[in-house]
Amino acid sequence: MLEVKNLTFKVNENGVERSIVKDISFSMENGEMLVITGPNGGGKSTLAKVLMGIEKADAGQILLDGADISDFDIDHRAKAGIGFAFQQPPRFKGMTVDRLLGLAAGEHLPEQEACRMLSAVGLCAKEYLKREIDGTLSGGEMKRLEIATVLAKPHKLCIFDEPEAGIDLWSFSMLIQQFERIHRKKDQMLMLISHQERIIRMADRIMVIDDGKIKHIGPREEILPALLTDEPSCTCMDREQ
């Protein structure tokens, strides 16, 4: 279970302090899928980075299965059970795919296991194991590789920041299938930041964040109709064509 209490994050811009995440509180149950949406610049990605420890909160508390991880850095939060997929996956020239998967798993992976992970995200393992994580890989390939790194070890909470960004329709369909598989198992919490209607419709609960605050949170059946009406406070979805 994840419990977030009064989380606040501020930045200093040209000598002026500005709050990006403002006193946010919510919880997630084990096995739950929570989709976070809302207008661009509302604080969604910053919240995710604060939860992962990429950014340090100015105030508030984060509990994971009852343990206070508020003071943990990114490494210790990863060891505690949080996985994170960036909106724009980083590239590492000289780093091969099999090496990256081993680092994500925390141990050397047998070739058969690495191949299984790549196959799970729709990549032909033999073609990718020794490839470098560099500019020769497309956005869709990078997205699928990053999903594979998150799946390389069990997590209590997996955070995906706009997994649909910059990928082709086929790659997007593969990601949806993978999220559905994870969700069916109900052994990990899934937090997805997204504007994509197809992802939002998968949620158990939806959270709408705007101006650093939670504007709406509740079961999909309650929140989705408001999003679909294009109310001013909820114009945040990319509709499917």
TrEMBL record:
GO molecular function, one term: ATP binding
Ranges in coiled-coil conformation: none
Record keywords, A-Z: ATP-binding, Nucleotide-binding
One Pfam family of this chain: ABC_tran
InterPro entries: AAA+_ATPase, ABC_transporter-like_ATP-bd, ABC_transporter-like_CS, Molybdenum_import_ModC, P-loop_NTPase
ABC transporter domain residues: 2-236
Alphabetical list of Gene3D superfamilies matching this protein: P-loop containing nucleotide triphosphate hydrolases
TM spans (from-to): none
Keyword Nucleotide-binding found: yes
PROSITE patterns in alphabetical order: ABC_TRANSPORTER_1, ABC_TRANSPORTER_2
Protein name as it appears in the record: ATP-binding cassette domain-containing protein
Source species of the chain: Mordavella massiliensis
